[in-house]
Amino acid sequence: MQPIQWSKWMSVGIDALDEDHRVLVAIVNKLADEDNRRDPAIVESILDELIDYTKRHFAAEEAEMRERAYPTYTAHKALHDSLTEQVESYRRRFQLERDAIGGEEVFEFCAGWLSKHILREDTRFGEYAVKPAPARA
Hints:
5 helices; 0% strand
């Protein structure tokens, strides 16, 4: 499996958030390692680490959005809540069906939701956040 490669297209232009995204990519990329994918205990540990770090990151990102008066903050926060629930639900499913869910599937799931969220949603916030504030009359 090929790990996720960080690219300039994933940057939101806010250093702290970009660093968080790099850490999230690194966590998911642990599942690109075949030995890690074969061990259900390691897969579960990586899922736990991903969930914990994601919650911290989402809280920081949401604070940044509130501070900058991001107009679609409420919708973005709802998306964060939904994504968190999806990953937690996936972890519960994995715990119940370890023999049926392989590490490859877990990697694909995590890589997919992370990449889509950063590329589709977070980059929109980045575009908003780096625009100069409109001049006041």
